[in-house]
Amino acid sequence: MRHIFVRTVVVLGLIVIGPLGISGCDNERPRVSIENARAEISPDLYGEGIVYLKIVNLGGKDALVGMKTTIPGATAGLHEMKGDFMVLVKSMKIPGKNTVDLMPMGSHIMIENMPKETHVGYAFTLTLLFARSGEIQIPLTFAKAQPMSPEHQHHE
Questions:
Q1: Separation of alpha carbons 45 and 79, rounded Å
Q2: Of 10, 43, 47, 151, whose CA is between 20 and 30 Å from 119?
Q3: 137 Cβ partners below 8 Å, 6+ apart?
């Protein structure tokens, strides 16, 4: 009788605890880093810049929930492309053990209301705010915008 009780407790334990072990990524601390960050002066919009980068997360899930810049008077916002439209979004999920690319024709960071002295070669810091990882500061220097490949050009 005791043997059946022990086996029942073990089986129930596996049913209850087993899924927790499988979904451990949810509770694991995120390990976020930034790679290949690049800032460009917008070739089309006066007083605006664009930042592209790769968010690498080797740990549990996180979310990008805000950003700010050291450029006086400028604001930074996260944009996503929805079809042909660029839409400002408040946050972006950063899945665990995954990489998120902010790139041309996709999600990217726009810096708006830049002063007229902002030019190619201008150095600044972009701070990304993550829900679980806190702030990550990225030193950047504006570069000339890279031309888009022919398959990404807009056709009239």
A1: 15
A2: 151
A3: 125, 126, 127
61 falls within a domain: yes
Can you give the CATH number for the domain in which 77 is found?
2.60.40.1890
pTM attached to this predicted model: 0.77
Cα–Cα distance list, 150 to 63, 92, 108, 147, 154 (Å):
33, 29, 20, 9, 9
**Are the CB atoms for 64 and 33 separated by under 8 Å?**
no
Range(s) of the domain holding residue 83: 28-145
Total structural domains in the chain? 1
Q: Can you tell me whether residue 8 is helix, strand or coil?
A: helix
Q: Show the beta-strand stretches assigned E in 6-89.
A: 32-41, 49-57, 62-69, 75-82, 85-89
pLDDT in tens, 40-86: 999 888 899 999 999 999 999 999 999 999 999 999 999 998 888 88
